[in-house]
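Figure 6 in text form: structure in, sequence out.
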């Protein structure tokens, strides 16, 4: 498993731009060839370029696992058609939610074992997420915030989470997601870990300002050897 520092658009907040699972990554269409190559090689994925809802923030707007992806109601028809076409060989369920909430990457924390979503997500959408991603979905705020997807990054190997989480809440998340979690920050002290971290079971990308001690905690949490 590989870990590498990177900037995207000259920005260390790399997690807002990219969605990945263990097979594919969705990235903005104007990344440099070098940036796309790093994403492809470190994460061992095929890279597909598209905006989501005419935005470059795929990491904020898309959530999913190896079973499927969920997309916001604001996605454009041509973007959805593109994704349905290029992702067909991967057998992914592709679900467009009707929710008023569109920052699905911030709301949904998921691996192939379970998902945690904020408490204010509509119940009908929770059921659709469960069906699309093939996992049990638990509605639970983390640190009293309804954005668990922005507070942590999890894979099937482990995860890292906002450093202010209490020990009991940490254990609760570990039991739900069935992985061990490590408290960590990125980019020299940013606690909203998703903003500076992209990971799957093959590799990890961190924002370029992430320090050595932060990388050690991220490596422990995500099982990087």
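Output sequence:
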């Amino acid at each position: 498993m590989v870990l590498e520092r990177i900037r995207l658009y000259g920005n260390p907040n790399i997690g807002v731009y990219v969605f990945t699972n263990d097979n594919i990554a969705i990235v903005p269409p104007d990344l440099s060839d070098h940036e796309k190559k790093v994403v492809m090689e470190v994460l061992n994925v095929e890279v597909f370029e598209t905006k989501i809802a005419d935005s470059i923030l795929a990491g904020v707007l898309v959530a999913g696992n190896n079973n499927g992806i969920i997309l916001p109601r604001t996605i454009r028809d041509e973007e959805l058609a593109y994704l349905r076409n290029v992702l067909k060989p991967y057998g992914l369920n592709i679900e467009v939610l009707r929710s008023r909430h569109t920052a699905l990457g911030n709301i949904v924390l998921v691996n192939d074992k379970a998902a945690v979503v904020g408490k204010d997500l509509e119940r009908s959408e929770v059921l659709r997420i469960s069906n699309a991603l093939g996992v049990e979905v638990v509605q639970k705020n983390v640190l009293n915030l309804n954005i668990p997807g922005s507070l942590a990054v999890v894979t099937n190997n482990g995860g890292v989470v906002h450093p202010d989480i209490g020990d009991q809440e940490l254990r609760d998340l570990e039991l739900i997601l069935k992985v061990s979690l490590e408290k960590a920050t990125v980019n020299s002290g940013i606690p909203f870990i998703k903003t500076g971290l992209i990971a799957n079971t093959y590799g990890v990308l961190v924002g370029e300002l992430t320090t050595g001690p932060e990388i050690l905690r991220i490596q422990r949490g995500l099982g990087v050897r």
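Caption detail: The mean pLDDT is 97.
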